[in-house]
Structure formats: C-alpha cells, structure tokens
Design the sequence.
C-alpha cells in the first residue's frame, strides 16, 4: 500500500470521527442537511447518491419547488449541464413518488423574472444587502478587467435568481457554499460566500456541520472547506 493510499484512509477515518461528533451537536435540521447533500451531489453529478438525497429531502419536508429552485441556482456555479441533469433526475423522482401514491407539497412558486430597466442596480443592491459591504461599479479587479462578466453577475445571478423568494437568502447561500465546497479549486469563491452566508445568518457551527456532511463522502474537500471556514472566522 503506497503512502497516498494510507493518507487517504487515515483522512477518511479522522473525518468519520469528526463527523460523528458534529452530528451530536445537531446544528443543522433535516431540511438543511438535505440542502447541503442535494447541492453537493448535484454539483458532482453523482446521480446515484443524488437520487437518494432527493427522496430524503422530500421526506424531510422540503417542497418540490424549493428543490427545483436549488437545482436552478446550481447552474450559476456548476453550469447548465449539471443543473439540467439534476432537474431531469428530480422530475423522475417526483413522477415515481406520484406513481407510488406519495403526496409531496408543491410549495411556493415563482414565475419568470420581471423585466427591470435597471437590473444591474437591483443586483448590485442585493449583493450589498447579503454581503454587508459596499459594491463599487464595476466590481474591483475582474469587473474592471471584464465589465461584461460583472454585468452578468449583477443582472442575472444577483437580480434574476435572487429575485425569487422560494428560497430565503440563508438557504440560497447554503446551496452555494455546499456547491463551492464540493468542486475542487474554488477556495477563493468559497471564502467569499462563507462570509456572505454568515452575514445572512448562517452560524459557524452550522457550516462546520455542513462541511462534515460533505467530508463524509469526500474527505479531502471537506478538510479544505473546514480550513477555509477557519480562515474566514479568524479574520473577523
């Protein structure tokens, strides 16, 4: 057995112990746990585990429209293919549950986004609200270098997507954080959204539990996410 294999086994064992300890705190309710795991497996394209968690999410009390909204939100961070595949799978799950006589709550609905003459400004103000920080026009760095991507982020992500109230801001950030914690190489964005998530009301202990849930399936990514959480908390 090589060193990498031994390291992976040890890391997984440590995470299982930490995960058991985190679950004892019970910071996340069953709906929140489902949000974390559905978002994580959908972002990875892990169809088998996603199907299990979609059923568990409905059993936990998430509405059909809440899960739809989560999977729509997914595309902004993991792309259209992952989002569309997850939505198609969810439709299959719902249809199968109907065939079995299971009645799930449809929940609050949201139609197509309204047309706004100043959509950029709407998105900028939303970002200010959830981040608790002033947002320059355009955003510093990437926004100055490529103004079009800044416009897309403000007008579409923070205006069109956030305009829906099917998910509240804290739920939406929990979806985002779970996606970013699962996909390798997105530490900078993860740190940013950990800060935003905490500003919307998510607690450090809740995020720790979320990362332990992810770590139960991907120890390396869970460890990275916990490290980034500690970095954000220590800077406050």
Sequence:
């Amino acid at each position: 057995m090589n060193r990498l294999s031994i390291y992976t086994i040890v890391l997984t064992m440590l995470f299982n112990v930490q995960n058991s300890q985190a679950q004892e705190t019970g910071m996340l309710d069953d709906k929140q746990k489902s949000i974390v795991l559905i978002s994580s497996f959908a972002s990875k394209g892990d169809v088998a585990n996603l199907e299990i968690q979609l059923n568990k999410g409905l059993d936990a009390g998430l509405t059909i429209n809440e899960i739809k909204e989560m999977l729509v939100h997914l595309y902004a961070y993991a792309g259209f293919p992952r989002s569309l595949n997850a939505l198609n799978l969810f439709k299959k799950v719902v249809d199968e549950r109907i065939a079995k006589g299971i009645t799930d709550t449809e929940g609050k609905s949201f139609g197509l986004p309204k047309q706004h003459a100043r959509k950029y400004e709407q998105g900028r103000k939303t970002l200010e609200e959830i981040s608790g920080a002033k947002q320059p026009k355009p955003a510093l760095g990437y926004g100055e270098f490529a103004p079009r991507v800044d416009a897309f982020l403000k007008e579409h992500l923070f205006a069109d997507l956030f305009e829906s109230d099917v998910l509240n801001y804290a739920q939406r950030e929990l979806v985002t954080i779970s996606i970013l914690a699962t996909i390798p190489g997105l530490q900078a964005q993860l740190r940013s959204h950990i800060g935003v998530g905490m500003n919307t009301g998510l607690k450090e202990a809740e995020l720790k539990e979320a990362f332990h849930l992810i770590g139960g399936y991907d120890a390396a990514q869970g460890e990275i996410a916990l490290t980034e959480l500690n970095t954000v908390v220590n800077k406050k």
